[in-house]
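Quick one, T. Sequence first:
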Amino acid sequence: MGTLEAIIIGVVQGLTEFLPISSTAHIRVLPALLSWPDPGAAFTAVIQLGTLLAVLIYFRSELAKAFCAWFRSLYSRSARGTVDARIGWGIFVGTFPIVALGLLFKDQIEHDLRSLHVVAGALILMGVALAAADRFGKRNRTEADARVLDGLWVGLFQAIALIPGASRSGSTIIGAMLCGFDRAAAARYSFLLSVPSIFAAAVLEVWSERSHLADLGWAAVLWANLAAFVVGYLSIAFLIRWLQTRSLAPFVWYRLALGLLLFGLMAQGILQPDTGLPPKEPVAAAQQ
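Structure tokens:
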């Protein structure tokens, strides 16, 4: 992978990771449109380290308070009812669904579910769900009203993002808004909840796919992460400001348009559903 290609993928990752339009879908589609090889689920997970760093820096104060309150609540009953402790516990329990399902369906996520048919369908279906949550969500709660069970509920929605095209930020924003959070609070909760899952996915993939990543070149990985960090930080700031006064409608229409475009390109034979995907290993070979 060349430096320019890595930077472009990093920019796309940073731009789309926090906007509810699916970073995985764009990183899957972009190489297909440009006739590049699919960088793979491993590379996609690893360059999320750049966006992870963006979240850690942007929300450093909120994360520090949530972690400290969560830790104090382990031995102090009086600390368990604080807002920060509830947010901390919500992040803790909300991480389990995506980790468990990610490990259970790892092979399908990295191969079968990366079909462009799946990506296009998920873009459209989750776009409709995003519109429904934006239209019918009560939006009468903020982070101060967060409960531990909210974290589990939003975490279940976060697990939907294992399907390429669904969008982690989009699915968690949907879950949070269905809990009654306002748009900006739903986005902030989504970003905070992303930290453990992104970190776990990146560390797991770095270790399990280290030889494949070396083939791509560590320089490419570093350039992609740097681009993802800078653009991701700006994307967080943009989305928080946007949702304070505006709706999710532009992201809904974008998802619908992109999904329909992909179906149209596949119907015309311009794109193939498995374009750029690495061949799946035979079952017998995989078991050796």
